[in-house]
Amino acid sequence: MQIHNLSDQNSILNSFISEIRDVHIQKDKMRFRRNIERIGEILAFEMSKAFDFHEKSVTTPLGKHNTEYHTNNLVLCSILRAGIPLHNGLLNYFDHAENAFISAYRKHNNDNTSFDIKVEYLACPNLDGKTLILADPMLATGQSMIATFEALKPYGTPKQIHILSVIGAQPGVDLVNDYFSSDVNLWIADIDPSLNSKGYIIPGLGDAGDLAYGDKLQQ
């Protein structure tokens, strides 16, 4: 897998990452969602540099101009519910893309530290020959990303696969790196060093879904 860590180079992205981590700024849910969306836009821009392009002639009021357009047939797949703001950021740039959504969540066992990944909802178009973009703001253990991809396999074989995350933990990045083939790309805004005993990213930012949309109902 090819890993593109955007935090390796300083940019305006640093400000957005800092704000989604800040416990005081996090209290503003609208701002939190918008920052995730803006990070998605930056990830989309960087990822687009790896697409296939061909020349196209455009007619202007005063003549013609030749420019390069990407030819990738995109499918954006986001993991509900935390992935929605990130998905919106990607759609701002790839407005003609097809869309897929999957519900993948942690089902904790009795010890409350170990868990299984449950997939209960999936809506997806055919993936044969397309560019699949898997988007999840938090790449913690990596298990949700792998479970999502396994659930998508019956829908066809993509030509290209890109994974997008806002913040990841090094153990989760290592897991998906071992699982996916060398031609898969991971685009990530920042990578933290570790996970705690419950599988949350340290220092991370907390639960992205809760910060964006409120606490989950207790089951």
Task: Describe the structure using short key phrases.
two-stranded antiparallel ribbon, 12 strands, 35% strand, alpha/beta, single chain, 219 residues
Beginning-to-end CA distance, first to last residue: 37 Å
Helix content: 25-40%
Strand count: 12
Number of helices: 6
Rg (CA only): 18 Å
SSE order, one letter for each helix or strand: EHHEEEHEEEEHEHEEEH
Strand content: 25-35%
Give the overall average pLDDT: 91
Given helix and strand content, the structural type is alpha/beta
Q: Could you give a short account of the major beta sheet?
A: 8 strands, mixed
Low-pLDDT residue intervals, each spanning 5 or more residues: none
Shape: globular
Can you give a write-up of this model?
The longest helix has 20 residues, at 29-48. Helix 4 (143-152) links the parallel strand 8 and strand 9 (160-169). This protein has helices spanning 13-21, 29-48, 84-93, 143-152, 170-179, 208-213, and strands spanning 2-5, 53-60, 63-70, 74-80, 98-108, 115-123, 131-135, 138-139, 160-169, 185-192, 194-195, 201-202. With 219 residues, it is an alpha/beta fold. The model has no long low-confidence stretch (mean pLDDT 91).
